[in-house]
## 1
Amino acid sequence: MSGSAIFVACSTLPEGDGDEHAVPEALADLGFKTRWAAWDDTTVDFGAADIVVLRATWDYAERHDEFLSWTESVPSLSNSAEVVRWNTDKSYLAELGDAGVAVVPTTLIAPDDKAPSWPKGEFVLKPAIGAGSRGAGRFTAGDAAAAHLSGLQADGNTVLLQPYQSSVDSDGEIALVYFGGVYSHAFSKAAMLGRELDESGLYVTEKLAPVQPAAGFRALAEDALDATAALLGILRAELLYARVDLVAGPDGRPLLLELELVEPSLGFRQTEPAAAWRFASAVRQQLA
Ligand SMILES: Nc1ncnc2c1ncn2[C@@H]1O[C@H](COP(=O)(O)OP(=O)(O)O)[C@@H](O)[C@H]1O
Ligand SMILES: [Mg+2]
């Protein structure tokens, strides 16, 4: 087998942040030629590639409709346009919660809803459609929270309200990475809120480290993927890549903070070279 792959990024960072350096090499070993392209580069024929892999499209949040139309125009997109539509709106957390997955308690506030009564203690307000921690803030009840909420709403956002999970400050988030529905590796991510945006302006720079997730974390990630596949009516194996971001809740048990099926950093630099080989293998499986 041989073929061609396009890895998709954005015009500001047309080859992503460098994390997947080893993946095109791993794909070349299996007979695939890879090139990078920005999703909005109209000179690129995305239909000509055997597989088009979303990797670093970090500017889609402000151009969500345009981005979704583009995903629908690409014949062999991974993950699929349907998955992208569902996963780019964090309202999916409520669906997964209803399906029995342990998610961080999430209240959705529509653009024309009035401010809720604020929870006791610290909480997070963030846009339902957002990436790279942009628009996310940590608050206690008061004017700053009200101003942040109304600012996001004025821009047309549905807003997520969640209790701040303080384990993020001590243990960070645990990101579990899956290729073709199968576990590959994990890494931890230090707390993001209050840190600076990268010079690209697209994301808050992440502080990552390798980690061996505890059994309860691995089990919850499996539950989240099974529930997602059931909700979308697909097989887990159809998900070329998935990153499940978990935090320890107040009682120490894991909770789902985010399920990334669009443009997660996959932490190849935090793990062994075989992770790139597993990704390449999963790409080939999508085409088999
Ligand atoms: N409920 C929360 N408790 C603690 N930290 C949070 C919470 N929600 C978000 N954060 C912090 O904000 C970051 C960005 O939020 P996230 O939901 O992952 O959105 P995205 O990564 O798509 O911007 C997280 O990586 C985490 O550090
Ligand atoms: Mg995140």
## 2
Amino acid sequence: MHVLISGAGVAGQALAYWLNRGGAAVTVVERAPALREGGHAVDFRGAAHLDVLRRMGALEEIERRRTGMGAMYYVNAAGRRVSRMPADLFAGDVEILRSDLAKVFYELTAPAGVEYRFGDSVRALREEPGGVAVAFEHAPQARYDLVIGADGLHSAVRALAFGPEEDYVHHLGLHCAIFPVENFLGLDHTAEAYRTTSRVVIVTSANHNAEARAQLFFPSPKVYDRRDLDAQRRAVAEAFAGVGWHTPRLLDALRATPELYLDSVAQVRMPRWSAGRVALLGDAAYSPCLLSGMGSGLAVVGAYVLAGELLRAGADHAAGFSAYERIMRPYAEGAQRGAEGNAAMMVPQGRLLTAFLNQYIKLVPYLPGKQMIANAARRTAEAVELPAYAWAGS
Ligand SMILES: Cc1cc2nc3c(=O)[nH]c(=O)nc-3n(C[C@H](O)[C@H](O)[C@H](O)COP(=O)(O)OP(=O)(O)OC[C@H]3O[C@@H](n4cnc5c(N)ncnc54)[C@H](O)[C@@H]3O)c2cc1C
């Protein structure tokens, strides 16, 4: 079986690992010119996520490279810390920079025979009897037994095989902008957050304090053109004009940065994750949104299950895709339900609600039931039973 995976993100690399280990030939095509540097951190929580990473032989290295982030502090406009959110309330069991994770997975897959093709992308798909003919932006056309779209929220494979993004991507009403800044607050493995009416500004130390990252959340019904960096910068600057604390300094950095991430906080909801010989995995199929803290966990568990069920089904790929969806759908939908609440609470509209939330945040560390918040996230993360596949170890 020769499988083409579009996307060398968390999902695509994890799937490549498992398919390769199960004996399939795997090609990964990635639009970026090389493995990504920098970027945000992702976390894994609960037994299911950690078990898959352990079975991959990746957990030890991930723990070695963990970011080691601690508590987050809410500050007032004067910069005084008014509330401390302990890491165990919101963080997972292990957090790692996405770029570090990509390196760990690359080391497990490329030397083992997975073919990576950077700087290219799928341009067209045509299903034929017994395979899929794939046209690329650069490489010559080739034929594969199966094609898996693991190319994220704005998946190209999804658009080609299932239809336009607007049919599946549900904007949750806010945007998130992230860009690097100097660690001018001297943050030591921590973050500071400032909330004002309908705006949230977070500065978090990154790369073991060598730099920091600004994360700006704002409500927005509009979806911005992801290819127009200047328009994106202007939109963020307009949304945060007049916001206090260190926001003006962050906006200065924004004006100069070539490295801006701006995207809608969005979920992917699809009635089916496969069509013929093409299927979707990770954010492309079931993004729970970046506020869920579950996207990377869902990606690695989904990769394990998809590979396992495909290899179990042998020539009957339709049975493999169905079994993958039967196991993963309730799990992914549970994560999505939890995240909708996070999105609604992140940037409450209006002064009154913001003032209420600011008071609530001050109280959270002292609430007797505070551990329930962390426990609920853990229950969501553990709400799946990993099937056993003989060739995958245990
Ligand atoms: C700012 C931010 C913070 C986050 N924080 C967390 C967190 O704390 N915890 C957590 O669990 N998750 C978090 N997430 C979500 C997490 O990153 C994703 O859910 C997870 O990485 C899903 O992985 P994926 O491989 O499905 O998609 P992605 O990580 O998006 O990977 C998709 C890959 O496909 C490539 N690609 C895209 N289009 C094409 C194309 N046309 N052809 C070829 N390749 C293509 C991309 O370059 C990328 O490498 C966060 C996400 C963001 C954006």
## 3
Amino acid sequence: MDGAGLPPASLRADAAAETVTLVLGEPLAAGRHTLELSWTGELGKHMKGLYQSKAEHEGKTENYAFTHFEPTDARRMFPSFDEPEFKAVFRTTLTGPAKLTLLSNMPAVSESVHDGMKTVAFAQTPLMSTYLLAVAAGRLVPQTRKVEGVDVTVWTRPSEAGQAGFALDAAEHALRSLNAYFALPYKLPKMDLVAVPDFSAGAMENWGVIFFRDSALLVDPKLTSPRAKRAVAETVTHEIVHQWFGNLVTMKWWNDLWLNEAFATWLAYKVVDRWKPEWNTWLSFDARRQGPLGVDALASTRAIRSKAVSSADIRAMFDGLTYTKGGTILRMIEGFIGEEAFTEGVRLYMKRHAYGNTEADDLWAALEEASGKPVGRIARDWLGQPGYPLVKVSALSADRGHLRLTQKRFTADGRAEAGRWAVPVQLAYERGGKVRTHVVLLDSETAEVTLPGTGPVAWVYPNKAETGFFRVGLDEDLLAALPSGLEKGLAGVERTGLLSNLWAEAQAGSSPMTRFLESLTRFKADTGRPMTEKTAAALVELQDGFLDPADAGRFARFASELLGPRWKDWGYGKLSDDEANIARASALAA
Ligand SMILES: [Zn+2]
């Protein structure tokens, strides 16, 4: 303390609280003091803190070291106020075997080699949270590209050097797009993307030195499917979004972790969709959304924003509700206030809180300022209570121009549960030969809506592009009016969304199974993969959970008629109407 040593007895460790307390003999005088700590430790084995990793090089196993700190493992490597609100600057110096590459958040400023070892000192970081610090030591080779003044490098093991190109393209696109989106350039002089041989998460957004497990970063150009490429692009973009949203502006406490992850999830899909529209990125988001739609209909679900005290509570928050329900809520809010106002609000928020810490309310305030709409009220409804509503729509007039909307909490088993939301509903409808959108806020149990325009309304679908985190139910007339054709009418994601809704309602017992089966037949012209997967998965569940054995033959014929032509399109052999069809459906749905 202030240059003088402290006796060992002045240190008191509390393992349960993960803290060390320094007890001084004398009270300290008011003013500025300096505390210097030195310590030693061992490399961890469990992919937490600073840990040992092993990799093969030219037939020999070598030891590498990497870090993973989020959420509460920086304290395993160094004593610190290891909570996101205690931001600090870091000057890191590493010493390791000279044959290895040593990396940290910032570029190296000096390097010296001595006795087979090397010491690298890195530039001082900006003000940042402890969980974002990182170091790496491994036999790594670089592929670098300059993007808008930033050195972007993908680091791989030498044997994988040929698989870095796609990640570099994805990172370049993400960095350019996000520099523009946030209207605030990326803050560090370099951005490393490192393929880590042993990594517990998919990826980690350490500021300036992002870590990935191999499969989330590397793409073998000869073998990898478009689906795998899309997943890599999403992960790379997600981590780069965090360089702003999470790293530059950080949550005060882990109860707002959801905002960090929800935002990165949603914006990554948006950026990747713009880059490669042919990948149908939002269709894959919809498939991902079905998981939390299922979980959140169970009695055991939780509100997104929930209390987190211990390290275990915090770890439990990294789930589908945090990432995907959270991401859908942001998308729903963007749809409600409009893309322009949403972007403006995000820019305001980033500028106002750069290098600081925030709560979710700070984002809602900025979005309200930019849009003049009640974003906070909507967000609090969706974050503070568990579950989601079923929005039922019925026509009040023969021309379908006048509708009634009602909401009720949706549960998987049909049990009654309380819940009321301010629901931004995007109604897609066709009137006068044109498909239009009408956005309303359903914030009471029931409301009447008049669709703009004149003449009869051909059809209405109340969750345009499946942007909302709710289920929809249509009355018989509205369901029958939906077009089955693929060219005009419902988008692919809406067709699969509608079937998911009908299937969930049938399972919950609130709508007859026949409505679902008839709709399957109706959309059988859609032989694309998402619809086929949805159909196959539902048929398998239906067979396993609901089928009367006496109906097995008829059911198999039904499944065969529905899926048979698709097998032929996909190059399968001749079909017989037996249970083999269902076995194939099972394999497909797995
Ligand atoms: Zn993330």
## 4
Amino acid sequence: MLDTALSWKHRATYYTCRQKVQQVQEALMKGKDDLSLCPYCVECTQYTQAQKKVKFICGHGYHLHCINRWFQDHPNSVGSCPVCEGEKSSRGDAPRDEAQTFILHSLHRRFPTIITQECIESWEGCNAELWLTVLKCPRYSSLFSKVFTRE
Ligand SMILES: [Zn+2]
Ligand SMILES: [Zn+2]
């Protein structure tokens, strides 16, 4: 019974992730320089009037608490837009889409078991429109064995 509950939770996380990826796709397709998403937490910035927002000259907007957290972790880049000045791809070849790459890393931080490091590497190079078609629910077995040994 415990396993059923965990299996359900695993699938629920997957569906949340899938919805989030879809939301990201839509935002990226609408406009890359004026996203309606906060690239750090991948949540909408438009309908949260209560939360303070920060917008850089480049057009990228963040929640105030998100940008503060980013600056805490990256003290060297305080004052500059994380998407434009932050993590650059390790591969220095063709110019890539910084916003897309940055959001991909944010998705990985939120859903490490679904958007894996391997996903980042293969998704980085392809259009965000394709992400949903390659998104798969990972096997649940590892979770099961972990729970099993604990009991
Ligand atoms: Zn945010
Ligand atoms: Zn920017």
